[in-house]
Amino acid sequence: MDIALLGVGHLGEAVLAGLIDSGLPPAQIWATALPAERAAELADTYGIEVGTDNPSAVAEADIVLVAVPPVAVGPLLSAIGPSLEPDAIVVSLAAGVPLAKLTDRLPKGITAVRAMTNIAARARQAATALAAPEGTDLTEVEDLFDRIGVTVIAEESMMDLITAVGGSGPAFLYYLADAMTNAAVDGGMEPVAARVLVDQMLVGACLHLQDSDAGPSALLEQIATPGGTTEAALASLDASNVDDAIRAAVAAATGRGGELHES
Ligand SMILES: NC(=O)C1=CN([C@@H]2O[C@H](COP(=O)(O)OP(=O)(O)OC[C@H]3O[C@@H](n4cnc5c(N)ncnc54)[C@H](OP(=O)(O)O)[C@@H]3O)[C@@H](O)[C@H]2O)C=CC1
Ligand SMILES: O=C(O)[C@@H]1CCC=N1
């Protein structure tokens, strides 16, 4: 199976690193990046073919992953259309670009898929949702994304919300990690030690959440010893309406995804 990866920025590189780490042979991946100097650096780092010419990169690809900014997706699809194999599958990783727009820009008969994944692809721990026209065989695309994490199939109508929760989601946790690390340092901890402690706390807590049959609200209760420190922290979070703030942030990201439909 030959893969083309068009656009190797922050997300594209996370996906690339994850796929290579999963054992996908580098000879099966053709990528493009801008400018030419970055393409050369990436070729050196990952031992794959990286150019700047998108039509050449897709010429033999079975699956084409598009990881350029949303506004660049349409022109790029128009440019690669004539070079695609007739049975190629084109997967857009962009936020807010609807399937209808992808299909409009591609030659008739080419399968278009929307994927929303996240930066944890680099650690092969991404959460990916795939949306495609009804009846599309997603087996090969699912197998590809399973290499870099967990994949689910979704209705396209859910993709903006999924983008907020799954795509932007890691940023919510990094925001929390940053705030907790800063609080620890402000309280007198040595910065490197604070970072190690907070990072491990988050990884451990997430692994425990994933392993546990109980959901997050039940786990909160297990940590909050009556009359103890966690109760005090949770009361403070509630007093600051943090739950509302998180819901508003998810709504803001979802809304922005909707606005991108028109870009
Ligand atoms: N970052 C993330 O965690 C996530 C991002 N996404 C989606 O992934 C896409 C990329 O986002 P992100 O990685 O953050 O953005 P970046 O700006 O980091 O990466 C985009 C890359 O695409 C390059 N590029 C632009 N146009 C072309 C082109 N025509 N051919 C080849 N390369 C091109 C850019 O080069 P240059 O800068 O020189 O223009 C840049 O290196 C977006 O659509 C975004 O919605 C989805 C989920 C998570
Ligand atoms: O911020 C963005 O628009 C992209 C999509 C999800 C994560 N990053």
TrEMBL record:
<keyword id="KW-0028">Amino-acid biosynthesis</keyword>
<dbReference type="InterPro" id="IPR000304">
    <property type="entry name" value="Pyrroline-COOH_reductase"/>
</dbReference>
<dbReference type="InterPro" id="IPR008927">
    <property type="entry name" value="6-PGluconate_DH-like_C_sf"/>
</dbReference>
<comment type="pathway">
    <text>Amino-acid biosynthesis; L-proline biosynthesis; L-proline from L-glutamate 5-semialdehyde: step 1/1.</text>
</comment>
<keyword id="KW-0963">Cytoplasm</keyword>
<dbReference type="InterPro" id="IPR053790">
    <property type="entry name" value="P5CR-like_CS"/>
</dbReference>
<dbReference type="InterPro" id="IPR029036">
    <property type="entry name" value="P5CR_dimer"/>
</dbReference>
<dbReference type="InterPro" id="IPR028939">
    <property type="entry name" value="P5C_Rdtase_cat_N"/>
</dbReference>
<comment type="function">
    <text>Catalyzes the reduction of 1-pyrroline-5-carboxylate (PCA) to L-proline.</text>
</comment>
<keyword id="KW-0560">Oxidoreductase</keyword>
<comment type="similarity">
    <text>Belongs to the pyrroline-5-carboxylate reductase family.</text>
</comment>
<protein>
    <recommendedName>
        <fullName>Pyrroline-5-carboxylate reductase</fullName>
        <ecNumber>1.5.1.2</ecNumber>
    </recommendedName>
</protein>
<dbReference type="InterPro" id="IPR036291">
    <property type="entry name" value="NAD(P)-bd_dom_sf"/>
</dbReference>
<keyword id="KW-0521">NADP</keyword>
<feature type="domain" description="Pyrroline-5-carboxylate reductase dimerisation">
    <location>
        <begin position="156"/>
        <end position="260"/>
    </location>
</feature>
<dbReference type="Pfam" id="PF03807">
    <property type="entry name" value="F420_oxidored"/>
</dbReference>
<feature type="domain" description="Pyrroline-5-carboxylate reductase catalytic N-terminal">
    <location>
        <begin position="3"/>
        <end position="96"/>
    </location>
</feature>
<dbReference type="GO" id="GO:0004735">
    <property type="term" value="F:pyrroline-5-carboxylate reductase activity"/>
</dbReference>
<keyword id="KW-0641">Proline biosynthesis</keyword>
<dbReference type="Pfam" id="PF14748">
    <property type="entry name" value="P5CR_dimer"/>
</dbReference>
